[in-house]
Write a structure and sequence with these properties.
By secondary structure, this protein is of the alpha+beta class. It contains 14 helices and 12 strands. It has a 4-stranded mixed sheet. Strands 1-3-2 form a 3-stranded antiparallel sheet, sandwiched between helices. Strands 4-5-6 form a 3-stranded mixed sheet.
């Protein structure tokens, strides 16, 4: 079906409204826009070429999401945003948005885009985030293990658990398909609690208070029951959760926190929950309570 010229702009705007302001030539042609109509809009600037066959609609500066979607669309069917930009899109890593990075079945050279050819794209590794085809969170963690430090990778794993309830078993399913990826060892140590890490300033300060009070150090961010807990002394049967608002200020996180508390009591642990104010602003009451739960190292 060929559209009259007056209706083409409305059609393009409608398609772009659900795709971050980005449209593909193949999509427009499939919806009846003619090559001549495309050429006229490219000439007058209502369509702006971003990559071969991929256009941005209008003159506003592109959003990060628009740049990411344009890169994925340019790499063909099945292509996925991956690694650092995928981690940024899921909220697993912080900082300046990384340049687009895409995995695809073909190797392409695109300006401003890092591309990786893969032999196979698994359906279970694909998801959509803000309308952008992206690697699912477990696959994203595996890709991030190749490029992040252990501390930043631990933060990403924590975000994945808190935001999306991702489990070590889900990541292990990806590793079964990709057993030779770099960083697998560190990722597994983090997931299974074999690598002692802290993932927040709040945890760092809490450990500093323990040291000042000459109290024993806990295991940090290790699995216990069905979830990872912030601090635990297994031999003393004590669990402590540290409530920074960033990680605990959503309904989903609140539900997980309550579940962790129930699991702690079910395994016979004493359970305490401390806030930023407890740790940073007035730690004396917290320290006094911990002295009743934990023997000092000098006494030991």
């Amino acid at each position: 079906m060929r559209h009259r010229d007056g209706s083409v702009d409305r059609l393009i705007a409608e398609i772009a409204s659900s795709s971050q302001g980005v449209v593909a030539r193949r999509t427009l042609l499939a919806n009846g826009v003619s090559p001549a109509q495309l050429r006229s809009r490219l000439k007058r600037g209502s369509l702006i070429a971003v990559h071969p066959g991929i256009y941005r609609v209008g003159h506003q500066a592109p959003s990060v999401e628009a740049s990411y979607l344009a890169a994925v669309l340019a790499c063909g069917d099945g292509a996925l945003l991956a690694a650092r930009p995928a981690g940024h899109l899921w909220g697993l890593i912080k900082g300046t948005p990384p340049r687009p990075e895409v995995i695809a079945l073909v190797k392409l050279r695109l300006a401003g885009v890092t591309t990786h050819r893969v032999r196979r794209l698994y359906a279970q590794d694909a998801a959509r985030r803000r309308g952008i085809p992206v690697t699912a969170v477990p696959r994203t963690l595996v890709d991030l293990a190749c490029v992040l430090s252990e501390r930043l990778l631990a933060r990403a794993c924590h975000e994945a658990e808190v935001r999306y309830d991702v489990t070590p078993a889900q990541v292990e399913e990806v590793l079964e398909r990709l057993p030779t990826r770099r960083g697998v060892g560190a990722l597994r140590r983090i997931l299974h609690g074999d690598l002692p890490v802290t993932i927040s300033t709040l945890e760092d300060r809490f450990l500093a208070v323990l040291a000042q009070e000459d109290l024993p150090m806990p295991e940090t961010n290790r699995p216990a029951g069905g979830h990872r807990v912030d601090c635990r002394w297994p031999d003393l049967r004590v669990t402590v959760e540290l409530d920074g608002y960033r990680y605990h200020g959503t309904r989903h996180a609140w539900e997980i926190d309550r579940r962790r508390e129930r699991e702690a009591y079910a395994r016979g642990d004493q359970f305490r929950r401390y806030t930023w104010g407890d740790v940073f602003e007035d730690p004396q009451l917290m320290a006094a309570e911990l002295h009743t739960l934990l023997p000092s190292r000098r006494a030991a």
